[in-house]
Amino acid sequence: MKWLLPTLILAFATSAAQAQAAAAPKQSRSHNGKATQVAQPAPERDLTPTELAVAERVHVGRLPCELGQVVTLTPDAQSPGYFDLQVKKAKFRMFAVESKSGAVRLEALTGDAVWLQLSNKSMLVNSKLGQRMADVCTSPEQLLVAQAFEKSPPPGLLDDPVVTRP
Fold first, then answer.
1. Which range marks the domain in which residue 125 is found?
2. What is the Cα–Cα distance from 121 to 137, expressed in whole angstroms?
3. What DSSP designation does 80 have?
4. What would the pLDDT profile of 123-166 be if each residue is shown by its tens digit?
5. Torsion over CA of 12, 157, 104 and 145, rounded to 10 degrees?
6. C-alpha angle 143/144/148, rounded to 5°?
């Protein structure tokens, strides 16, 4: 049951990002005489008050992940709600997006990556391939929540609700 919520979030993130990427304009580039399609980054825009509120909840800094990976997430002081994310040699310019699930969500301007932040972990997803690029990335606050979940797991989505009587 622990896998259900992250799987649903991943599926939602992938489908939404794929739809957004399909709508993004593409530019043709020639490399070694062969034409290729390259996605153009969307222009930066002023974010809505809801998106700025999401941005305030983003855990920033150097976040260790599973398999020895590290994600560095830095807010842009000049553009509120925008972040620079780096994992290995990959760099992404990301912005806060409203999420119906309540998860903190950042999307790359190029439409090829999504950062999802839950209460106990964060993950970077390649939305074009539907694969996780980094998983179980934790800030100090998320690590405390993850440790609390180990001691007392929250109820699963499909568990029977606990009825308390007055």
1. 4-21+51-151
2. 6
3. T
4. 999 999 999 999 999 999 999 999 998 888 888 878 777 666 66
5. -140
6. 115
